[in-house]
């Protein structure tokens, strides 16, 4: 995360120094937007987590993957006001704090990519492979997969923080973020091609649900502007000032951080069970059901009421 840093005491060193204080300057309107994005995105993450945990009908491996994805993301969205100094305070920190904060944010973002990859791979295997056999294997292994993902993240966070305290800041978290995003693009492209081939060559396969595909694609799209700004920053510097590039970078990052809202909307529109459960949690009744499915919905609501 490139922040505009200004040293409070003069030094000739260019790397983070633990004895040096840095002031982070962020434009006012970016602070306001960051606060709004943080509020809505954190609320969306929490709503998804609470809805899935509360209603047993949503206790599928796909929804548990989504819950852990939201938990991984909520650390970032909840910390946006501090990250962008939305409270209007003078954000002053030494090199250690900035190193830990900056690199661990990228660690969490990279692990968001990993959850996206796991979700889309699980969807493809369950849909286009031997569905009965794969469904059993995926159902038996998803808890182990989630545990391994969190264990690796915790180890990486501890390692990164230790290296920062040892004055060994490194670019691996940022590089991992960029590479993992590229891997998601390749994965989505490969799965889309394989999906088209499977649907064209087999009449047995029935694609029941595209929820996972829509979530993965929406995540890729929301982070695409930030990746493009990062990749073409060298070219942009020849035509734009550093302040303009920083604003573009901040804005594109906030678009990516707002994906939690997109996730909630996609879940609400695409996943009928999630929609009914969320409405039930807030005691909302909808009248947009036709006569063919209203009976099934009433059965579902009765099940939810019993919980």
TrEMBL record:
GO terms for molecular function: G protein-coupled receptor activity. It comes from the Eukaryota. Its main location: membrane. Keywords: Membrane, Transmembrane, Transmembrane helix. InterPro entries: GPCR_Rhodpsn. SUPFAM superfamilies: Family A G protein-coupled receptor-like. GO terms for cellular component: membrane. This is G-protein coupled receptors family 1 profile domain-containing protein. The chain crosses the membrane at residues 28-53, 65-84, 104-125, 145-165, 171-194, 215-236, 242-269. The keyword Transmembrane helix applies. It is found in: Membrane.
